[in-house]
Write a structure and sequence with these properties.
Layout: E1 7-14, H1 23-35, E2 39-45, E3 52-59
Antiparallel strand pairs: 1-3, 2-3
């Protein structure tokens, strides 16, 4: 039986209330994510704002697992 791929996901909202995301900043972010093995799976506009939400995934391994700091 083949193993099921487990995924890790990442989401970031870019842009601000006053201005839309700059192409150069978005390209730099995406290139950095690509070097880390992330694949963008969704880009959506945030309603009533100049922001967009980018969601990416990559196969989950012990070597690539992101460390999270939980609030509080």
């Amino acid at each position: 039986m083949a193993e099921t791929t487990q995924w890790e996901y990442r989401s970031e909202t870019v842009g601000s209330f006053w201005s839309e995301p700059k192409n150069e900043a978005v390209e730099a972010m995406l290139n950095e994510w690509g070097e880390q093995g992330w694949e963008v799976i969704s880009v959506t506009a945030v309603q009533n704002s100049n922001k967009m939400r980018v969601v990416a995934k990559r196969p989950l391994t012990h070597a690539t697992r992101r460390q999270r700091s939980w609030p509080g």
